Amino acid sequence: MAHTPENVVYPYIPNSVPAIKQQMLREVNAKSIEDLYVEIPERLRLKREMNLPAPFLSEYALRRHVEGLLANNVTVQEYTSFLGAGCYQHYVPAVCDEVNQRNEFLTAYSGRTYEDHGRFQALFEYASMMGELLNMDVVNLPTYDGYQATATSLRMSARITGRQEALVCQPVSADKVSKILDYGKPDMQIRLVGYDKKTGQLDVAALKAAISDKTAVIYLDNPSYFGCIETQGDEVAQLAHQHGALCVVGVDPISLGVLTPPIEYGADIVCGDIQALGMHMQYGGGHAGFIATRDEERFVMEYPNRLVGIAPTVVPGEYGFGEVAFERTSFIKREGGKEWLGTMANLWGITAGVYLALLGPHGMAEIGEGIMARVQYAMNKLAKIKGVQVPGFQSPHFKEFVVNFDGAGKTVREINKALLARGIFGGQDLSQEFPELGNSALYCVTEVHTKADIDMLVGALRKVVEA
Amino acid sequence: MSQQDITAQRYESGKPKLRRYHQARWDEPIIFELSRPGQRGVLVPEVEPEIKEQVGDAFSALPDKMRRKQPPALPEVSQVHVLRHYLRLSQENLGAGLVSDLGMATSTMKYNPPINEQLARSPKVTELHPLQDEETVQGILEAIYRFEQILQEISGMARFSFQPRAGSQAIYTNVSILRAYHASRGEAEPRNEMIATLFAHPSDAACPSTAGYKVITLYPEESGYPSLEALKAAVSERTAGLFITNPDDTGIFNPLIDEFVKVVHNAGGLCAYDQANANGLLGIARAAEAGFDLCHFNLHKTFSTPHGSGGPGAGASGVTEELARFLPVPTVEFDRQRYYLDYDRPDSIGKIAPFYGVVPNILKAYAWVMGLGAEGLREAAQVAVLNNNYLLKQMLEIPGISAPYAEGKRRIEQVRYSTEQLTQETGVSSLDFALRAADFGAHGFLSHHPFVVPEPLTLEPTESYSQADLDEYAAIWARIAQEARTHPEGVKTAPHNAPIHQITDHDSFEDPACWAMTWRAFRRKAQDDHGQ
Fold first, then answer.
1. Mind listing the pLDDT tens digit for each residue in B304-344?
2. A7 touching B, CB under 8 A?
3. Pick from B428, B433, B419, B435: which is nearest to B503 by CA?
4. Looking at CA atoms only, how far is residue B422 from chain A in angstroms?
5. What digits encode the pLDDT tens for the residues A70-115?
6. Could you tell me if A209 lies within 8 Å of chain B, comparing CB atoms?
7. In angstroms, how far apart are the furthest CA atoms of chain B?
8. Domain boundaries for CATH 3.40.640.10 within chain B
9. Which of B154, B339, B396, B424 has the most CB atoms lying inside 10 A of its own CB?
10. Which CATH class, in words, describes the domain spanning B128-371?
């Protein structure tokens, strides 16, 4: 272990200057720092220096070190990516980053509505713009991610209905199912309901057979994990309501410039992930979740998260903000609150607000239209390759679609390795996650893909598959 | 007047006077009010004509009922006005970079070095898809792997998962692991009680409760921590485990912590250490030496990643070798040639969150440690403790302010004060004081609920604050304590220098007929009012 020079002054630690430390020790009547740790018994002490790598004390050396590590990554800017499956490459407008790197937002935490007024207003506006996109009146401050939003929506449904069974319509990502299963323990019963193998649409007959007066909620993703736009949402919601259950829909918010908001086909709770709305992928670090409901007390009181409300102040015309019905949370009631509250993902909420303000109604419609067109183009082109079946399902698609390679004589793994050698990240391999699909992959096309990008994929796949 | 005179006027008895502060007040409209039909903030990439031609109507396969009829009523704002709006809002917000944020206690508000932010905002991090071939992400996997090794040494635990997206989710992860452990021994059912302590984050009680456990809360004794006898009375064959902090949010270290762990172990339970308050202990005392089975760190507290106006943070769940098989999938492994993600862990609790956690924050935390090293981390801890005891001395010199429990003893990294006596003498509550502190650019966190310490105020001066910062913060409290005696009304009507004034209509937050959590709900309810 390299040695740190004696009496080094650390730039992040103003009082590491020895003379200052000595003076402060005198102020508190201590001979040494050790005097301040007198309450920690010897037997609990670490009696040696920690064995950590030698530090890079200068900022330059630190930068060299970390950038050296990061140089071993290859990005989606360097290669062309068609990966989705829950994390999406969309264009992030420069103003989104300009705002979320503002030190005032970046380094703030949970101050009060007065001195942190700006944070409250930005988050209220985020919820308000999400409300317009979803056509709903109540939206929470972001939870951790879309998985947590789904898991909490199911728990909320159980509390609202007093029932414990959730019917989860496949296809849902295996990872999301894993999260839901863990979070449902020990009380909730999570039952997976199959899908139509031809259309990829949910299986209404199977749902009818499964639902009972024990069912708290039917959950579906729309678009589904396979990118299929589910068209039977209205029937499902009706079915749920006939049995006294709720209908929860997980939605990709970037689809809502062109697709019908789930509340309009009967959803009671709508949830999802906002990563697509202005967050870089960050190797999966850009996620945040939303939950939206109607403005009814029975829904509002079951949220575990922060809800920001608007209110007047003593000055006429001045907007103030505050926490709505905070008594419901674990911050007030500890184990008696709804689930728990903690640090979640507000910076991404502020950023998604910036994104929606920049895009506006026209931008959101155009981005959706553009994705629909590019997806259709990609599917048409890929379908012409011998041994490749596209799309895997007869359904309208948004952003993602299944490509089947059963006729290609190569595994997805082999195909993706060959694509990688050509500078392409092929679609996510589904052969383990959904074995019934055979040798299939999930491809993703967004507004970042040009005709040339898609044509390059088609050309590369043709070479790989037909070789 | 000469330069020197102006300078002299800024001091009194050799000490700087309190600054004449006023926060930005933009009286900024709600973004919907900025909307002008037709304005655009950004244009989206056009679809090439060849694609349009080839595809025709991209919506032909979509049933009409699934096509949105009315565009979302989002604001239509030009780009400069979107930027200006958010810059103004940012100015009406106190970040830890802008102010001495030691009043935001239990949160370990420390300096967030911009170098770490720049590194994490490199395209080499931001433009990585989590499902890329492992060959193409060796750099970020190596950073995650190395940071896990660092936390192993800092805590003495065998393995970590960074999947939890903040501290509370890490607590929940540890609850799930603990449950899986008991289930593996056929004891999940009978062990349905979890023990927590009061002076800890509410999630130490709320997460076990969410997972279906009955929670038993131990209250502090005179010492500031619960008695061993109370713990012995609480444990039984129903005990699944203990969730505890040390030091508690009072900054008081429980010297019997290893005895606590033994009592729970003897009853067949496991012990989880909430290390939210680890900042004074880096290189001093670890989870392993006290015998813990699980622990968690908040990377956005102890390891310097910014709090993001309330997240994303990052949580790190640590476990002993025996419990490692239950960690969420995947783990990051190294086979001496390459780094890889290991999903082949049949006993895993599965997924807690998508992918691998808040990766940019893991990288920032790694960079923070690599900029300090073992000695630097210990220096951070020691200076944090020195700062805390220095501030404690100054705060106790303010008449009417006390630090309940363990009187005269040293505190570790924070202190929960009480203004009870001052409040009794002046009628000004600790909340009033905290609101007035905003007029000087300072936050003041009171306490988590319930308020066992009456009229609480909690302060946590990490290593990031200078002696002058501490002096200034104490001087603010000395000033407002004095104000409470001379003109209490001015304190009770605070803040005066913040972006907005007091909210009086608290029905707006509690009454379903009034509350409005979106602009559309607010407009609708306001119009209903007019209609009546």
1. 999 999 999 999 999 999 999 999 999 999 999 999 999 99
2. no
3. B435
4. 22
5. 999 999 999 999 999 999 999 999 999 999 999 999 999 999 999 9
6. no
7. 83
8. 128-371
9. B154
10. alpha beta
Task: Report the CATH architecture of A80-90+366-466.
Answer: Alpha-Beta Complex (3.90)
Over the stretch A156-201, which tens digit does the pLDDT of each residue have? Answer: 999 999 999 999 999 999 999 999 999 999 999 999 999 999 999 9
How high is the pLDDT of residue A1? 46
Task: Provide the number of CB pairs (under 8 Å) joining chain A to chain B.
Answer: 730
Inter-chain touch B71–A362, beta carbons under 8 Å: yes
- The residue whose two tokens read 């630190």 is A62
Q: Which amino acid is at B298?
A: N
Spell out which residues of chain A touch residue B491, defining contact as CB-CB under 8 Å. none
Upper half-sphere CA count for residue B245 (Cβ side, 13 Å): 31
For residue range A292-336, list pLDDT tens digits in order.
999 999 999 999 999 999 999 999 999 999 999 999 999 999 999
Whether ipTM tops 0.90, in short, is yes
Interface touch B377/A52, C-beta < 8 Å: yes
| Chain A contact probe: residue of B60, B65, B93, B505 with most A CBs at under 10 A | B93
Chain A residues with beta carbon closer than 8 angstroms to that of B443: 111-112, 115
User: In this complex, do A105 and B253 lie within 8 Å of one another by their Cβ atoms?
Assistant: no
Shortest CA gap A243–chain B (Å): 24
Nearest to A104 among B95, B107, B515 (CB): B95
Residue B532 has pLDDT above 70, yes or no: no
Nearest CB neighbour to A259, from listed B68, B215, B349 = B68
Interface touch B389/A30, C-beta < 8 Å: yes
Q: Which two tokens stand for residue B377?
A: 């981390």
How is domain B375-492 classified at the CATH fold level? Aspartate Aminotransferase, domain 1 (3.90.1150)
Q: Which CATH architecture has domain A94-355?
A: 3-Layer(aba) Sandwich (3.40)
Q: Do A109 and B310 touch (CB under 8 A)?
A: yes
pLDDT score, position B507: 83
Task: Tell whether the model's pLDDT for residue B504 goes beyond 90.
Answer: no
Tally of CA atoms within 13 A in the half-sphere of A416 that contains its CB = 25
A4 — contact with chain B (CB < 8 Å)?
Answer: yes
A194 touches chain B (CB under 8 A): no
Question: Is residue B507 packed enough to be buried (19+ CB in 10 Å), middle (13-18) or exposed (0-12)?
Answer: exposed
| Residue from the list A27, A39, A147 with its beta carbon closest to the beta carbon of B354 | A147
Q: Please, where in chain B does CATH 3.90.1150.10 lie?
A: 375-492
CB within 8 Å: B196 and A335: yes
**Is B42's CB within 8 Å of A176's CB?**
no
Q: How far apart are CA B160 and CA B157, in angstroms?
A: 8
What are the residue ranges spanned by the domains of chain A?
14-56, 80-90+366-466, 94-355
According to DSSP H, which parts of A297-345 are helical?
297-300, 330-333
> Do the beta carbons of residue B104 and residue B95 sit within 8 Å?
no
Contact (CB<8Å) A185/B211? yes
Nearest Cα neighbor of A154 from A204, A188, A203, A130 is A188
B38/chain A closest Cα distance in angstroms: 9
Paired strand residues for A320:
A311
What residues in A contact B86, CB-CB < 8 Å?
95, 99, 102, 122, 350, 354
Q: How far apart are CA A110 and CA B204, in angstroms?
A: 19
pLDDT digits (tens, 9 = 90+) for B372-400: 999 999 999 999 999 999 999 999 999 99
For A144-160, the pLDDT digits (tens) are: 999 999 999 999 999 99
What burial letters (b/e) apply to A14-40, b meaning 16+ CB within 10 Å? bbbeeebbeebbeebebeebeebbebb
Q: Which two tokens stand for residue A455?
A: 């044509």
